[in-house]
Specification:
binds pyridoxal-5'-phosphate; 39% helix; globular; Aspartate Aminotransferase, domain 1; 361 residues; Aspartate Aminotransferase, domain 2; 2 domains; alpha/beta; seven-stranded mixed sheet
Length: 361
């Protein structure tokens, strides 16, 4: 077939998500595999969200509120910002895409940590812009390294705080110093998908920089702490001038009605929020303890997932864990050929994980 596609689209590799449970059941005949591969919430969805969604199903014949009025206002109130500062997305992934489509074009450069969340790289390339990679330093994002890569072509900078997949944070002090070195019109995206799990008090909170007159965009999601990854809802917090631009290219109903209703209810679900944090912190400590005992090397984390050094090909290790009914994530495509990433499951799931890990090791 004749197909005319820009070279930079030809060159893209599609995003590879964690292996879905259904696929493992189908391909390996394993019943009820334990999935620890996509940093999801093992406790299920926020019960309040689930209830609200059930109640709202009767309205599915109607289009959603394209302006997301109630949810925008609720988020604004919770974060003490104005609704005009918030943009809803079909997951925060969509907002990452919207940022690239609105602000980047051919010839522009975007600076990214490497390795980090693979979507930054994909969206930057998808508009013909050039990703400029900055290697991690001691597994963390090196803003000093970012500084050295700034050129006249730099239009956007991605900071993943905490960083997926290494679980490290950027401190507020580091960021303040960095900000002075960034030209004022460069968009700084701070992806805070896991900020709720952070225990280190020195961690940067992007919201502290919302009222300075700079294009800083903070990304948050309902996919992780609220357990709503399947619902697809996230949001960005940014100066009004930036929401105005993104709203020009936003699809009118990008946040579905059930997503809006579910997210609204989840925001109020303090009990679930706290329960999730407690589980993640307790289970991290449990897994650290087990791994220490086994003499296994890992990266301590500020998130709900961490990296384990398996000291051999991570793809093969992943396959062997799969045979044991455990889905982890091989870090080969992230540039850590001998690491797997695993997120916190329930205690029972984590015990199964350790059991399988012992066998495979
Ligand atoms: C999970 C994750 C997201 C959230 O994606 P959604 O599209 O909101 O589900 C964003 N950034 C990073 C780094 C993530 O790991």
């Amino acid at each position: 077939m004749k197909l005319s596609v820009p070279d930079y689209v030809w060159a893209l590799d599609p995003y590879e998500p964690g292996k879905p449970m259904e696929e493992v059941e189908r391909e390996y005949g394993i019943k009820d595999p334990v999935k620890l591969a996509s940093n999801e919430n093992p406790l299920g969805p926020s019960p309040r969200a689930a209830e609200a969604i059930k109640r709202a199903i009767g309205n599915l014949n109607r289009y959603p509120d394209g302006g997301g009025f109630e949810l925008l206002n609720a988020i604004a109130k919770k974060l003490d910002v104005r609704p005009e500062n918030i943009l809803l997305g079909n997951g925060s992934d969509e907002i990452i895409g919207m940022l690239a489509h609105t602000m980047l074009g051919e010839g522009d450069e975007a600076i990214l940590p490497d390795p980090s969340f693979l979507m930054y790289d994909i969206v930057v390339k998808s508009v013909g812009a050039k990703p400029v990679y900055v290697p991690l330093k001691n597994h963390g994002i090196s803003l000093g390294g970012f500084k050295e890569k700034i050129t006249e072509k730099t239009r956007m900078i991605f900071i993943n705080n905490p960083n997926n997949p290494t679980g490290t944070i950027v401190s507020k002090g580091e960021f303040e110093e960095f900000l002075n070195a960034v030209p004022e019109d460069v968009v700084i995206v701070i992806d805070e998908a896991y900020i709720e799990f952070v225990r280190d008090k020195s961690c940067l909170n992007g919201l502290d920089f919302l009222d300075i007159d700079r294009p800083i965009v903070i990304l948050r999601t309902f996919s992780k702490i609220y357990g709503l990854a399947g619902l697809r809802i996230g949001y960005g917090i940014m100066p009004e001038a930036v929401t105005e631009m993104l709203n020009r290219i936003r699809m009118p109903f990008n946040a579905s009605s059930l997503a809006q209703v579910g997210a609204l209810a989840a925001l109020d679900d303090d009990a679930f929020f706290k329960k999730t944090i407690k589980l993640v912190h307790e289970e991290l400590d449990y897994l650290y303890g087990e791994l220490d005992e086994m003499g296994v090397t890992y990266f301590p984390t500020q998130t709900n997932f961490f990296l384990i050094d398996v000291k051999r090909d991570a793809n093969a290790f992943f396959e062997e864990m799969l045979q044991q009914g455990i889905i982890v994530r091989s870090m080969v495509s992230y540039g850590f050929p001998e690491y797997i990433r695993v997120n916190m499951g329930t205690h029972e799931e984590n015990m199964k994980f350790i059991e399988a890990l012992k066998k495979v090791f």
